[in-house]
Design a protein that fits this description.
Blueprint (H helix, E strand, L loop, with lengths): L9 H15 L7 H22 L11 H6 L16 H11 L5 H19 L14 H14 L4 H5 L1 H34 L3 H14 L6 E4 L6 E8 L4 E5 L2 E14 L6 E3 L1 H6 L6 E7 L1 H4 L4 H10 L6
Helix pairs in contact: 1-2, 2-4, 2-5, 2-6, 4-5, 6-8
Protein name: DUF4145 domain-containing protein
């Protein structure tokens, strides 16, 4: 008899995503069921991406018997029903596990699942009252990222015809974001140019004062040229180095937000930052002394030393 895949395996979860995608596209995009089934597709892809690392990461960690279930091990707990982690927690796990999955993607997944919850658990009709143009390009983008993370593609998820449509939507969204952020930068540049020299100098000095390295990564503002700050999320493994002064940690960061105090320009989202030429990764460096890093209680350590008798013969 052929062995079936574990219910929390990547293959089982992706197969379910494919099934839900078929049902989704049985409906027109102005039908509320189109949106509802799209949320189910997202959830299965999120779960498949986590399971691709290990099915153990699907398990609800509050009960270790769930870990046994993920490992296909028997449990001695009576009336045990395996429970996976919540979708909101799994979205966060994907953000930590998948380099290509940004905070923008995470935010879209969370908001889309929230619509699903409202649809299923209340009298609201969120997918009835929202146009697909506001979410479908982001949906396809997230599907592409998650499918790629597990070695799949838009074609294997949706079929060639819909995959072609999806890529057109993704490309159009990139153009829209690039144009939007360039218009925003241009508007702030115009306002900055209308300021007097004295006003510019005062704003420039204020920006240099508050835009310190320990608050973020310093860059030049594309609108006014003043010192501004990028904030990002970790991308990749932390590199540790032991020195005479303690422990040094270096972490590659991917930009997520930008803010300039001088002219007021704000940009949120990795895709928009890339369009503004602010999408390059940077290194965040942290310095710790050994006691701080290893959380040594110095007073307790001294007390223990005093309690020891090192003069016995």
């Amino acid at each position: 008899m052929e062995k079936t895949s574990h219910e929390w395996s990547k293959d089982s979860l992706f197969a379910k995503a494919q099934l839900y995608a078929e049902v989704m596209f049985e409906h027109q995009d102005n039908n509320w069921q189109f949106g509802l089934w799209s949320a189910f597709v997202i959830e299965m892809l999120v779960r498949a991406t986590v399971a691709n690392v290990s099915p153990v990461l699907i398990a609800d960690s509050k009960d270790w018997n769930n870990l046994l279930h993920a490992l296909s091990k028997p449990t001695k707990k009576q009336k045990f029903v395996a429970k996976s982690a919540s979708i909101s927690e799994l979205i966060q796990r994907v953000e930590d596990l998948a380099d290509g999955f940004t905070r923008e993607h995470s935010n879209f997944c969370a908001s889309h699942v929230a619509r699903r919850n409202s649809e299923v658990h209340s009298g609201n009709m969120p997918f009835e009252n929202i146009g697909t143009s506001s979410w479908l390009p982001s949906f396809f983008t997230v599907c592409q990222v998650l499918a790629s993370e597990i070695g799949e593609s838009l074609e294997s998820l949706f079929g060639s015809d819909i995959a072609e449509q999806a890529k057109e939507e993704i490309d159009a969204q990139k153009d829209d974001k690039a144009n939007a952020v360039k218009d925003t930068i241009s508007a702030h540049k115009t306002v900055w140019g209308d300021k007097t020299f004295e006003e510019q100098e005062q704003a420039r000095k204020q920006a240099a004062t508050v835009s310190l390295r320990h608050y973020g990564h310093r860059v030049n503002c594309p609108a006014c040229g003043c010192t501004a700050l990028l904030h990002g999320k970790s991308a990749g493994e932390v590199k540790k180095e032991v020195s005479d002064d303690g422990i040094i940690e270096r972490q590659v960061m991917r930009p997520e937000t930008f803010q300039c105090v001088a002219c007021g320009l704000k940009i949120n989202g990795y895709s928009k930052l890339r369009a503004a030429d602010l999408g390059d990764t940077y290194i965040s460096t942290s310095h710790y002394d050994a006691i701080e890093y290893f959380e040594v209680d110095l007073d307790e350590h001294i007390r223990n030393m005093m309690a020891d008798d090192n003069n016995e013969y």
